[in-house]
TrEMBL record:
GO terms for molecular function: 3-dehydroquinate synthase activity; dehydroquinate synthase activity; NAD binding. It comes from Methanobacterium lacus (strain AL-21). HAMAP family: Arch_DHQ_synthase. It comes from the Archaea. Residues 200-374 form the 3-dehydroquinate synthase C-terminal domain. It catalyses: 2-amino-2,3,7-trideoxy-D-lyxo-hept-6-ulosonate + NAD(+) + H2O = 3-dehydroquinate + NH4(+) + NADH + H(+). Belongs to the archaeal-type DHQ synthase family. The lineage of its organism: Archaea, Methanobacteriati, Methanobacteriota, Methanomada group, Methanobacteria. This is 3-dehydroquinate synthase. Pfam families: DHQS, DHQS_2nd. NCBIfam families: PRK02290.1-4. Residues 1-186 form the 3-dehydroquinate synthase N-terminal domain.
Length: 374
């Protein structure tokens, strides 16, 4: 996943505090700082990146002014910064190398540092002409995260989209709070997953008795048309609508998906599934809209209660999938027009949106394997 760090540079403490607080509220929790690490630690659960050994991440390559200008020896193997980095890494520290790219020699040293560091932070005067592509290609396959130091949203977007993959992250040195929020929103957008949903023909709808049903209450408000991918078969998940609609029976609960019985799968980030019975407070699940766009959502609470159940079976191009849902008017799937349809009104011949996965699942992860589910 892409990420951002923040460096509140040249600010007095009050101004710096506002920027760091905005970063934390935007989901950015790594702060690069060399002056106020103790004060920063009191603002929230943050990771401080600095040039002291007790930092959460120790930064190598910062001189007195913190400008990342390194001494480049003729023989790069004799680099003091490379030696310091190697020693810190050997001692068990999480380490980052920070350097400004001014020449081909700087680029070569960056590649060497990146083969030892956990993070490689690169500073450039103009990312449109700095060879990020070369360094990304050189370090492909290495266990290092490449970060570009940027001053605004436009530079961040350029760095994150360089080549097919872009840098792993950006170090934003913002002039104002709006830049922090724009970068955070962009990262959330490019990290979101999309699932290709198809309309499946309903072939069976019938009550099957009672079972332990799971309600998933999230820390986010869902809109009409959003829900979760849930199903009895990992190869085929139904888009179960949130309780975001008003009903004559109950008030809307747009944070909730009445998802299904304890055995059912639910889609989680990274194209992984988990059993509904495993989900608990603090876990992450995916909320999905009728076009397959997703958001990562934190679970606030899970409720398991015995309720009457309904079997729903559907078929698409010879593939048959099933799920069990609570037999209640407020439980809805989404039809081919993107509209919620109650299971109480669902009938054979209706078309509902499902996600079909060609892969099998092993401990929730997609794998290339033949598997039979029935």
């Amino acid at each position: 996943m892409k990420f951002a760090w923040i460096k509140a540079e040249g600010q007095n403490w009050d101004e710096k505090k506002l920027l760091i607080t905005a970063a934390l509220e935007s989901g950015i929790d790594h702060i690069v700082d060399y002056e106020d690490p103790e004060k920063i630690a009191k603002l929230g659960n943050l990771s401080v990146v600095s040039n002291t050994k007790d930092s959460d991440i120790h930064m190598v390559g910062i001189n007195g002014e913190g400008d990342g200008t390194l001494t480049i020896p003729d023989d790069l193997s004799n680099s003091k910064d490379l030696a310091d980095l190697t020693a810190l890494k050997a001692s068990g520290s999480t380490v980052a190398a920070y350097m400004e790219i001014n020449s081909k020699k700087h680029e070569e040293l960056a590649s060497k540092l990146g083969k030892t560091a956990d993070y490689l932070v690169l500073q450039g005067k103009d990312w449109t002409v700095i060879p990020l592509e070369n360094i990304i290609a050189e370090l492909q396959g290495q266990d290092v995260k490449i970060i570009a130091a940027v001053k605004d949203f436009d530079e961040a977007k350029l760095a994150l989209e360089t080549l097919e993959y872009g840098t792993d992250g950006v170090l934003l040195i913002p002039n104002d709070i709006s830049q922090i929020k724009k970068v955070a929103e962009f990262i959330e957008k490019i990290d979101s997953e999309t699932y290709q949903l198809v309309a499946a023909n309903v072939t069976k709808v019938e009550p099957v008795g009672s079972g332990d049903r799971v309600c998933v209450d999230t820390c986010s408000m869902m809109q009409v048309g959003e829900g979760m991918l849930v199903g009895s078969y990992s190869k085929g998940l139904f888009l179960v609508h949130s309780e975001s609609l008003e009903s004559e029976y109950v008030a809307s609960r747009p944070f909730r998906v009445n998802a299904g019985p304890v055995h059912a799968y639910v889609m989680t980030p990274g194209n992984k599934t988990r059993y509904l019975s495993e989900i608990e407070t603090g876990d992450e699940v995916l909320t999905v809209d009728s076009k397959g766009n997703t958001k990562t959502t934190v679970v606030g609470r899970v409720k398991i209660e015995k309720r009457p159940l309904m079997l729903v079976e559907a078929e698409h191009e010879g593939v048959s999938v099933r799920t069990l849902l609570q037999n209640a008017e407020t439980i809805r799937l989404i039809n081919q027009d993107g509209d919620p349809v109650s299971v109480a009104q669902l009938k054979v011949g209706d078309r509902v949106m499902v996600y079909l996965d060609k892969s099998a699942r092993h401990f929730g992860m997609a794998i290339e394997e033949s598997i039979i589910e029935k």
